[in-house]
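Recall the central idea of this unit: under ordinary conditions, the amino acid sequence of a chain determines the structure it adopts. In this exercise we apply that idea directly, starting from the sequence alone.
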Amino acid sequence: MAVLLFVSAGGMGLIFPSFAALATNAVEASEQGATAGSIGAAQGLGVVIGPLAATLIYGIEPRLPYLMAAVLLLRVALWPGPRQR
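Accordingly, the structure predicted from this sequence is:
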């Protein structure tokens, strides 16, 4: 379990800064501070709310959190990319 947590934490450590950089580079310079703050707040909120919500949903039906995660990941994978000009 400790090895898996190490891998998970390492992955998050690599992804979170990259995601914040991509988001702040996608907006105007005057909006970068607010964007970085919003990204940080959303990540923190997700780390707190996600396990609590999954635990409550697991109490209803043990397979449901996994199915919901699969549906959300599928929606992200099928999200349309930026349009070419």
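The chain has a mean pLDDT of 90.
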